[in-house]
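Following up on my earlier thread - several people asked me to post the actual chain instead of describing it. Fair enough. Here it is, all 456 residues.
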Amino acid sequence: MVTIWTPDLGPFQGPKYLRLADAIAQAIAGGELAAGTKLPPQRLLADKLGVTVGTVTRAYDEAQRRGQLEARVGSGTFVKGQALALAPASGEALALDGAMAPLGPQARMLSEGLTALAQDAEALHRCLPYPQANGLPAQRQRFLAWLAGQGFALEDSQLLLNHGGQHGIHIALQALCEAGDTVLCEGLSFPGIKFACQEQGLKLVGLAMDDQGLLPEALEAACKQYRPRAIYLTPNLQNPSCATLPLERRQAILALCRQYDLWVLEDDVQFMDPAAKPQALFQLDPERVVFLSSFSKRYAGTVRLGFMLFPARLRSRMDLGLRASTWTVSPLVLELVSRWLAGGQMDALEQWLAGEMRARRQLADQLLPGLQGEASGFNCWLALPEPWRASDFSRAAMERGVRIRVAEDYAIGRLPAPQAVRLSISQPGSRQELTLALGILHQLLLEGPHLARAVL
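Reply from S.P.:
Thanks for posting it. Predicted structure:
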């Protein structure tokens, strides 16, 4: 019997035939089109979708090229077996283990920006000498104006430009702590904080969390026990749990930090649609918080540029940390990025990223219900159903060609990690690749773990 299958092409981009091919891939991965299903005749599907017969023919041909459909002479077009339909066409693993910006307008931005800069001899001349300051005055003013538009009204003395989020962590710890001090963080945290503390001889203690982030009662208990110097937090889309601290909890945490005289390092490198962002900890308490961010997630990893916001009284310590590590930042990179900020290109890119990530998240939610994390974020958090263990799920996914991260990768100290995985849905090069990867994970969840060989 012919399946009268009529897909929604809205979530997909590109020419209509590719959108239909992607819809076929998603339907196969999600089990909507099972192996052996006969697809509608091309003319019938064309009429239902309001497209030409040629469009459907090209879509079916593309799906056959991907190994998802097969045409049987005299019988029609059928879905291939699940294993064939879900196999990565390149033979390489499908990566969901690295939070990085999906690529779209970035190459055009870079080409146009470099071309304009190459034609501005005066600007190039200003960028040539060995830099003695943290950015040229005009560059710093562009950054400050852009930050003001983001809700950060600052004095020039409160801004430091650096080489990215990890560099900012190093500088902040050098400025605020001494060897032997204790630093607190979420029990699951970005591994960069662990490496930075190890390098500087600092003790790092992970604290208990729930699905909204750090627990204030765990913070208070640690303050009484360890007399810490600072706490490292990622309030928005916490890495890896994707939790975002609600305002009431932000205020409770800051109140405890004031009570116990604790500096706060606020890591805000994870991308989130600016329209969805709650108030930053720095905005709530600018005298106690050092705010860290980067353009690597907003643009791409090739731009190693970040910034720090802090109380003006810390300026000399921050300058010393910068000079001790890299002296300063290249004026050429600052010129390029500050022009994007002033010209609106960076804001336009963020709007594109937010739209692209929402479309990807819609695909993910269809295949893996129950994902945690804000809709525009690069990552999702998947709590695994019993009896799956995260290590077994990760191994099974890798055997089928998908790389993911488990909670244990982010555990601080001996704090127990939940049976959960982080999925970077921003990483695949296309929505088609994302659909294939998520379809494999969907199938694993349906199958459940295989029984291991008995140990006697």
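The chain is about 45% helix and 15% strand. That should answer part of your original question.
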